[in-house]
Amino acid sequence: MSPDYSNIITVEPGKRGGQPCIRGLRLTVYDVLEYLEAGMSEDEILADFPDLRPEDIRACLAFAAAQEHRVASLPPV
């Protein structure tokens, strides 16, 4: 069962172009995923962004996995 990230990942049309952000902050899910992809550890990300919590990073991963699942479930064109 995937964690519920609905109270962590927010989308506001006027903030960061409507991209999914973390708890209304100006930090997007994509930003966090890029940091992880670049090799930053969770501890390094949390140190660089003191407003973040460990559950925020897990919510980003859950959100990305859910998005991938939706794309993989689309019928072939």
Topology:
Elements: E1 9-10, E2 21-22, H1 29-37, H2 42-48, H3 54-72
Antiparallel strand pairs: 1-2
Question: How would you describe what is shown here?
Answer:
The chain has helices at residues 29-37, 42-48, 54-72, and strands at 9-10, 21-22. The protein is mainly α. A two-stranded antiparallel sheet has the order 1-2. The longest helix is centred in the C-terminal third of the chain and has 19 residues, at 54-72. 14% of the residues are buried.
Order of helices and strands: EEHHH
Provide the helix percentage. Answer: 40-55%
**Strand order across the biggest sheet?**
1-2
CATH homologous superfamily classification: Winged helix-like DNA-binding domain superfamily/Winged helix DNA-binding domain
Span between termini: 29 Å
Structural class: mainly alpha
Largest sheet descriptor = 2 strands, antiparallel
Q: Beta-strand percentage?
A: 5-15%
Computed Rg: 13 Å
Which shape, going by the Cα principal axes? globular
Extended strand count: 2
Mean pLDDT over all positions: 88
Q: Number of helical segments?
A: 3
* CATH architectural designation: Orthogonal Bundle
Q: From the 3D structure, determine the CATH topology.
A: Arc Repressor Mutant, subunit A
- List the uncertain runs: none
Look at the structure and give the CATH class. Answer: Mainly Alpha
* Total domain count: 1
Overview in brief:
With 77 residues, this protein is mainly α. The chain has 3 helices and 2 strands, in the order ββααα. It starts with 8 loop residues before the first strand and ends in a 5-residue tail after the last helix.
